Amino acid sequence: MRRVGHKGADLIEPGNTLASFDAALAHGVDMIELDVLPAPLPGERHGTPGGPLVLAHDYEDADEREPLSLQDGLAHLASEPFSAIEFIVDLKLPGYEARVVQALADAGVKERAIISTTYRNSLTRLRETDPKLRVAWSVPRARRDYTRSVLMAGPALAALRVMRRTLPRRAAIAIRGGTCDAISAHWRLISPALVAAVEGAGGELYAWTVDHSPKIRQLEELGVTGVITNDPRLFGPRPATSI
After folding, report:
1. 3-state secondary structure of 87
2. Among residues 100, 150, 153, 160, which is most buried (max CB within 10 A)?
3. Per-residue pLDDT for the chain (243 aa), expressed as one digit of tens each?
4. Alpha helix (H) ranges present in 31-181?
C-alpha cells in the first residue's frame, strides 16, 4: 500500500507548504498530494482560470496566507531528496488543466504525477492534453467533508451509501473506457466490491482522507492502492522485509 501525505503532512505542518512536504518526506511517505488553484487576477473573482497557479485547498485557505506558487512548489519537489516520491496533483476547479500539465513537464516530474479532479470534463481535457498522462477521478465532489457537520451528516451519509452501491460499476466503466487510470475516493465509499471492480479494470484506488490508524489498517487489508492521510505518522513503521 502506498503511503500518501495529504497536502504534505497537514497535521504536522500547514498543508501545501515546503515545510509540510519536508515533514511528509521525513515520515516516510511514498507519495505527496498537493492542491492547485488559480489565484484571482486583479479585479476578478475567485475561480477565474487565468490567474497564477498556487498551492491551496480552497480560497479561504489561500486568503489566510500567502500561498506557495505551483512553480516554486514543484521546484522543491523536483529536488534530489524527493527523487523517489510520486505526486497526486489535485485540481480544485476546471479550466487550467493544460497549464498544470505544462508546469509538471517544466519541473521534470510529469512522469511521477497523477492528476486528480472531481470534474469529468477536466478528465477529458487532461486526456486531450497528454494521452499518456496518469489521471484520477476523485469522488464525491464536495467543498468539505459534510459527514463531520451536525446539520449535514445525515443527508451526506445517505448520499454516500447510495454512491457506495453504484460506484464499483461506474468506476470500472470509467477505467476501461480510458476516462481515468485511477479512482480517488472518500474512505466511506471504499468497499470490497469497489476494490475488486477497480482491480479488475486494471486501475488504481486511493482512499482519502484517513486520520485513524485502525481504518488505515482496514483499508490496507481490503487491498487499496494507497491511503491519503493528514498525518503520515499514523502509517507506523514499515514491515521488515526478509532477505
Report:
1. strand
2. 100
3. 999 999 999 999 999 999 999 999 999 999 999 999 999 887 787 877 889 999 999 999 988 899 999 999 999 999 999 999 999 999 999 999 999 999 999 999 999 999 999 999 999 999 999 999 999 999 997 766 656 664 556 776 788 888 899 999 999 999 999 999 999 999 999 999 999 999 999 999 999 999 999 999 999 999 999 999 999 999 998 776 545
4. 59-64, 70-77, 97-107, 120-129, 153-176
- Say if residues 167 and 194 touch (Cβ distance below 8 Å): yes
Task: Looking at the chain, list the stretches that DSSP marks H as alpha helix, in order from N- to C-terminal side.
Answer: 18-26, 59-64, 70-77, 97-107, 120-129, 153-176, 192-200, 213-222
Neighbours of 12 (CB within 10 A): 19
CATH architecture of 2-234: Alpha-Beta Barrel (3.20)
What angle do helix axes 97-107 and 70-77 make, rounded to 10 degrees?
Answer: 40
Report d(CA 170, CA 126) in Å as an integer: 19
Give the residue from 124, 154, 123, 153 showing the smallest Cα distance to 136: 123
User: Residue ranges per domain, the chain?
Assistant: 2-234
Q: For residue 24, which phi and psi values (nearest 5 degrees)?
A: -60, -45
